[in-house]
Amino acid sequence: MNLSSMLEDTMTTLRVKTSLLREVGFLGITMGVATHHGVVYLSGKIASYGDIAEAMAIARGVAGVRSVQNGCQLRHA
């Protein structure tokens, strides 16, 4: 992986995190975001399947994202 690819992945990760933070429903949720070759990997404990689907949709809408992989788990009350 060259420096240019690493930088682009870092910027994509930042754009996804920013987009998730802008959504009211995702404030306070700790969600891991990593990017490798344009593929975004989401992780963390999330309240519902709907929230996971919404997070994936938000990530897919970010420039530079080729695909999104879900590694999130449901958080138990």
Termini separation (Å)? 41 Å
Number of helices: 2
Please give the share of residues in helix.
40-55%
Note the quaternary state here. Answer: single chain
Rg for CA atoms: 12 Å
What's the number of extended β-strand segments? 3
For the residues shown, what is the average pLDDT?
A: 90
Low-confidence stretches: none
| Order of neighbouring strands in the sheet with most strands | 1-2-3
**Proportion of residues in β-strands:** 25-35%
Q: What does the largest sheet look like?
A: 3 strands, mixed
Q: Look at the helices and sheets and give the structural class.
A: alpha+beta
Tell me the overall shape.
elongated
> What is the string of SSEs from the N terminus onward?
HEEHE
Concise structural overview:
By secondary structure, the chain is α+β, with helices and mostly antiparallel strands. It has 2 helices and 3 strands; from the N terminus they run H-E-E-H-E. Strand 1 and strand 2 (39-46) form a beta hairpin.
Tell me what you see in this structure.
This protein has about 80 residues and is an alpha+beta fold. About 40% of the residues lie in helices and about 25% in strands. The protein contains two helices and three strands. It has helices spanning about 5-20, 50-60, and strands spanning about 30-35, 40-45, 65-75. The longest helix has 20 residues, at about 5-20. The radius of gyration is 12 Å and the shape is elongated. The model has no long low-confidence stretch (mean pLDDT about 90).
